[in-house]
Each structure stands twice: as C-alpha cells, then as structure tokens.
C-alpha cells in the first residue's frame, strides 16, 4: 500500500481543524501531579557487580583496536631499536652511543661487585645494638677435638631482679653446645659462688671430677675459666674439692687459686669452621702480639695445630693508614681484591675483633670500588663489636 506524503502546510491545516482542549489547572498544580506520579526505579544491590563487569567488558571491546594500534606504533618506532639495531650509533651519534655503552657496563660491573662480596650473610659478632635490653654472657666452649676454646656470647633478656652471676649460672643450663658444633661441656660439674666485694668466684668440685684426667682436660678446664668470667667482674678463682682446699689437676698439681690475667688484649682472630653449622666462628689466638701489624700478618696463615683457618685471604693487601692512640678510630686500606671474596664479611669481622683487642673502638676502611660489605657501609666509621660469636637463648 502506497504511503501518502503530506506537506507541512497540509499538516498545519489539519491540526487547526482539531477540537480545542483546555485544562483549568494552574501550571504549579500540573507539575505537582506529575511529581507525585513519577516512580523511581532502584537497581538491586546484587545486580551492581554484574553491571560493572559488563561495563568493563564493553570498554575492553571498544578500546582493544586502539591498544593494538598503539603497540604496533611503538614497535615500529625507531627509538625502541637502539639496543639491537646495527645502525643505532648512526641514529644516536657515535658519542652518545659510546656513553650509553659505558654507563651500562659500569652499572653491570658495580652490580657484580656488590653481589659477589657483600653477600647475604649476617654478622657473627655481638654489636652495641644487640645488647639493648639484653645481657651478654660469654662462655669459652671447647671444640669437639679439644684443640681450642671457642668464645660464644649468649644474649639473654636483661632482668633487674637477678645478678649477672645468677643469670650466668642459670644460662649455663641452657647452652646447646652440640647444636653449635662444639663439645658438650656446660654446666660445670661443680658448685659455684660469687663474692662481689672481692670479685672472686669460688668453685667446689666433687672428688670424682674428671677435669684432671689428662693434660688436655686440665688445660681445657683452666682455659674455659680464664675466658668465661668477665675480667671487669672477676679477678680471681678459688678452688676446693668437697670443701677441702684446692683442686688436683695432674701435671698442674694441687691448685688453690687462679688469677684471671685478662688475656683478651692484643690478640689475633682466626676462623674456626665446624661441620654442620650455618656459619663459622671467630677464635682468638692464645698468645698476644706486640703490634697490630704482627697480628694482621699472622692472620694470613692457617693455624693447623689448633684447627683454625686464616682469616685474611691470600692476595689481600692491608695497610694501616693511621694508627692513632688506643680507644680511637683505626684507619685501614684494603686492596680491592676482596671483590672476589664471597665470605669477606667474616674476614672484616676478624679484623674488627683484632682491632678491638688492641684497644680501638671504631674502624674506617678505605678501598677502591667497594661501598658495602654485608650490613657495613664502608663510607662510614664502623663501631667495633662488643664480643664474638653471637647466640640468642630464649627462656620460657
């Protein structure tokens, strides 16, 4: 059926022939009527996540062609090809390309240096930050071959209602020497008593004690006592055997008392690395040295008779730049061959403990191309350790 078309004039004429329609209400009344009848449609809450997902999907569909075009334009852009294109130096200019290559090589070299010797090892010694809120107690524990005594510094929570000696005795019971790769030696088979006024420890052993069975046992017993009691609190040890004066130690004879000589001065530190442990221990020599240079020189050699390894790697050049008065900063130059030393952190700690035994409190290291060894920044003065070989014991 063919549809008729009316002109605008004809439409206007037809509209004029329609009957008139009138509304006696005011405009305000008409508006209020419309508002009262209008209903608001509320979208259920459960439907909102679905609508949001649909909206995201629609956006992805709409934007996908643009994103593809953008990626194609980036991939076609010549600026992204300068690393692989043979004509890169022509586009960048020879000078700019050479500069870029040098910066990349230097960055890679620095990364290798850092990774190769800063490592992820943790320090072995006790530092001033470790003893905040803690008491540090050192026990000299024999190794399993009874060649050396290893000073283990145990950190326990500091208390105000116990003396240091009470905590010393209590902690003896908690030592786990075998887990640390050492001999099971503590607690001592003896009764201990401390007199603060005279700074004396009284040790009473049973008649059947085994500390005098052989020269090795005798030496280990005396060395353990010498290195376990703090020299600032204990000056002398007095022995009794079941209340009777003295202790019989074979070749030493009957010993009544022993003065603590404080032999922790002017010592060199070496590495003791027992099996099945996650880190080595740093052990001092028995003999003291007349100079720091002599101690460092000795640390370059293994101490095979005691089962100790050299703590300064071969090929490392070490110079004392400023040996100031004791109690101040020791300044050293260390050659940059340490870059290839994976465990140089332990060597650095051996240097620091040796410097401490010579009376220094801080260390400054100068070297080439090395900024960090483990947690220690070589751009700053390094506070020396409080004591060697940290272990932490928690009391339940």
Task: Write a concise synopsis of the structure shown.
By secondary structure, the chain is of the alpha+beta class.
What does this structure look like?
- The protein has helices at residues 8-16, 27-37, 48-75, 88-92, 94-117, 164-172, 215-228, 292-298, 344-357; strands at residues 134-142, 149-157, 191-195, 200-205, 236-241, 244-245, 247-248, 254-255, 257-259, 269-272, 281-284, 318-323, 329-334, 362-366, 372-373, 376-377, 382-383, 390-392.
- It is α+β, with helices and mostly antiparallel strands and 396 residues long.
- The strands form six sheets. Strands 3, 4, 5, 6 and 9 form a five-stranded mixed beta sheet that branches.
- The protein starts with 7 loop residues before the first helix and ends with a strand.
Total E-strand runs: 18
N-to-C CA distance: 101 Å
Ranges with pLDDT <50 over ≥5 residues?
37-47, 66-100, 105-120
Structural class: alpha+beta
Q: Main beta sheet, described?
A: 5 strands, mixed
Order of helices and strands: HHHHHEEHEEHEEEEEEEHEEHEEEEE
Please bin the fraction of helical residues.
25-40%
Q: What coarse outline follows from CA principal-axis ratios? A: elongated
Strand content: 15-25%
Mean pLDDT: 78
Radius of gyration: 41 Å
Figure out the total of helices. Answer: 9
Write the layout of secondary structure elements.
Blueprint: H1 8-16, H2 27-37, H3 48-75, H4 88-92, H5 94-117, E1 134-142, E2 149-157, H6 164-172, E3 191-195, E4 200-205, H7 215-228, E5 236-241, E6 244-245, E7 247-248, E8 254-255, E9 257-259, E10 269-272, E11 281-284, H8 292-298, E12 318-323, E13 329-334, H9 344-357, E14 362-366, E15 372-373, E16 376-377, E17 382-383, E18 390-392
Parallel strand pairs: 2-18, 4-5, 13-14
Antiparallel strand pairs: 1-2, 3-4, 5-6, 5-9, 7-8, 10-11, 12-13, 14-17, 15-16
């Amino acid at each position: 059926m063919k549809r008729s078309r009316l002109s605008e004039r004809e439409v206007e004429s037809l509209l004029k022939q329609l009957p008139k329609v009138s509304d006696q209400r005011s405009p305000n009344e008409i508006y209020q009527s419309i508002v009262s009848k209008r209903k608001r449609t509320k979208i259920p809450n459960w439907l909102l996540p679905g609508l949001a997902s649909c909206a995201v999907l629609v956006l992805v569909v709409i934007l996908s062609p643009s994103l593809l075009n953008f990626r194609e334009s980036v991939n076609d852009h010549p600026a992204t090809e300068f690393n692989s294109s043979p004509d890169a130096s022509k586009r960048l200019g020879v000078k700019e390309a050479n500069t870029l290559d040098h910066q990349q090589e230097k960055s890679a070299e620095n990364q290798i240096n850092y990774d190769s010797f800063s490592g992820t090892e943790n320090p072995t010694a006790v530092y001033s930050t470790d003893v905040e809120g803690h008491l540090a107690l050192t026990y000299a524990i024999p190794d399993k071959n009874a060649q050396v005594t290893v000073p283990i510094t145990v950190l326990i929570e500091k208390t105000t209602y116990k003396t240091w000696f009470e905590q010393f005795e209590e902690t003896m019971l908690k030592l786990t020497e075998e887990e640390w790769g050492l001999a099971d030696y503590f607690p001592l088979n003896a009764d201990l008593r401390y007199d603060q006024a005279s700074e004396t420890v009284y040790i009473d052993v049973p008649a059947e004690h085994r500390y005098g069975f052989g020269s090795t046992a005798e030496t280990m017993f005396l060395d353990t006592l010498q290195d376990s009691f703090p020299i600032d609190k204990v000056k002398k040890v007095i022995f009794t055997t079941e209340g009777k004066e003295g202790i019989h130690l074979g070749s030493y004879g009957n010993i009544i008392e022993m003065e603590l000589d404080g032999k922790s001065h002017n010592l060199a530190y070496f590495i003791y690395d027992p099996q099945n442990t996650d880190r080595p221990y740093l052990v001092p020599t028995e003999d003291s040295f007349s100079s720091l240079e002599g101690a460092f020189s000795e640390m370059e050699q293994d101490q095979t008779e005691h089962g100790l390894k050299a703590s300064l790697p071969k090929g490392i050049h070490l110079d004392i730049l400023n040996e100031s008065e004791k109690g101040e900063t020791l300044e050293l130059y260390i050659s940059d061959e340490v870059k290839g030393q994976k465990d140089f952190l332990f060597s650095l700690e051996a240097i620091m403990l040796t410097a401490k035994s010579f009376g220094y409190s801080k260390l400054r290291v100068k070297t080439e191309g090395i900024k960090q060894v483990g947690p220690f920044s070589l751009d700053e003065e390094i506070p020396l350790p409080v004591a060697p070989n940290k272990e932490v014991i928690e009391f339940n």
